[in-house]
Amino acid sequence: MSHSVTRQDINATPPSQPQAPPLPRAAGSRRGPSPTARRQRKAALLFLAPACFMVAVYVVWPILSSIWLSFYNWDGMTDKVFVGLANYIELFQAPTFYTALKNNLIWLVLFLLAPPMGLAVALYLNQAVSGIRVVKSLFFAPFVLSGVVVGLIFSWFYDPTFGLFAVILGHGVPVLGDAHYATFGIIFAALWPQTAYCMILYLTGLTSLNSEQLEAARMEGAKGWAMLWHVVLPQLRPVTFMAIVVTVIGALRSFDLISVMTGGGPFESSTVLAYYMYDQAIKYYRIGYSASIAVVLFAIMLVYIVYHLRRMLRNEQ
Length: 317
Known about the structure:
This protein is an all-alpha fold. Helix content is 68%, strand content 1%. The chain has 2 domains: 40-69; 96-316, MetI-like (MetI-like fold, Orthogonal Bundle). Helix 6 packs across helix 9 and helix 14 runs antiparallel to helix 15. Mean pLDDT is 85; it is low at 1-13.
């Protein structure tokens, strides 16, 4: 039997195929965070809120207020008078500003002796002998002393009539009364507590050294300077970074010892930017001019802090 194909059979549509059921949605394809993630984020924000509030009130707001105040002439009592950049123009024309800036640089260079001196003392004290804890306490004592106390002690030490320094030399030398020696005498006094602080940092780092690396270096014959340079110091790199950062910031904001020992004298030869700022605000009631000094000092510190923060983040990455 022959089968004929008609036009109707050609145009007939094929039966529809059954559609597959939709795939279940993956767990990570939900829109927005899960309720648990939202609760965790809310809890984190609540914990951070007090610290953020304190930083905003005691750090950010004073910085912005100082920048705003530096454009005004104000004695703290009368109305403020807007003077624009006049305070900065006067500041950059003042000889005392460059003297203070030079002294800050001297502080910065000589104060960096504290980390290596602290490391040397820490290596000496990192021994398991009887009575070493008492010796460590004696070396750490300068750091817990007030800056005023340290200043008074070294003022007596430098006294040309009865001071111990005059007894050692056999004759009196007016260290704090000579414009050429005053800054160096104050820095030497400031190194005493700063070295103790760096010593504590390095003692903490020495207790966390990798003993396996030390033992392997000893088996390879490393000792003395080779052990220190190639094995110990690389492991102390984070401690060294922290000691240098703290030391540089301390050098830039030096104030208390200068106030106690010389008052910026003689003839403003030992003043620094922090004391110059205080002197203009408290003695001469020039609040706006003092704020301009604070802004310049903040800018100098900001450059250094940003540089080291970027370096630290790069090392962590």
